[in-house]
Design a protein that fits this description.
5 helices, globular
């Protein structure tokens, strides 16, 4: 079993890049722990190609659940895959979760979602996500290490 962190997002769409920026921040530490870091960005085929059966995945992406911007949510991949097809939403179509479901990849893991404030053509995060960036990184780091210890 390999442990992999995959960042999904679009660097030129403001807060949609939060997953990429968080993984960039955490990657030196994660790589020291032998966790493979994958920047899937909007190339879902590339990300899917990096996933092997029995991997433990942490997929980091932006979310829009109409909750407070900067809120981090954690969902098991199994729960996301087992949702009715019409309930799996992604700005990155087709979504990685849809592909995992279609190709019946056998893995465990989590989707670590970071609630956005706004998505628009911009290279920078919103002021809200910028202010919360360090705490978002800490929360995700802690979750990954707790999940790994719980294996």
């Amino acid at each position: 079993m390999k442990i992999k962190c995959i960042a999904i997002g679009n660097r030129i769409m403001g807060d949609d890049s939060i997953g990429i920026k968080v993984l960039e921040e955490l990657s030196p530490e994660l790589e020291k722990e032998k966790i493979e870091v994958i920047f899937g960005e909007t190339d879902i085929d590339y990300a899917l190609n990096k996933i092997e059966d029995m991997d433990l995945l942490f997929i980091i992406d932006s979310t829009y659940f109409d909750i407070a911007p900067g809120t981090v949510t954690f969902t098991t991949i199994e729960k996301a895959i087992n949702q009715p097809h019409q309930q799996i939403y992604s700005q990155h179509q087709p979504s990685l979760i849809n592909f995992l479901k279609t190709y019946k990849k056998s893995m465990k893991g989590y989707i670590l979602g970071i609630e956005v404030e706004k998505i628009h053509f911009c290279l920078d995060l919103s002021e809200t996500l910028e202010e919360k960036f360090i705490s978002i990184c800490e929360e995700i780091r802690e979750f990954i290490y707790k999940a790994i210890r719980g294996i």
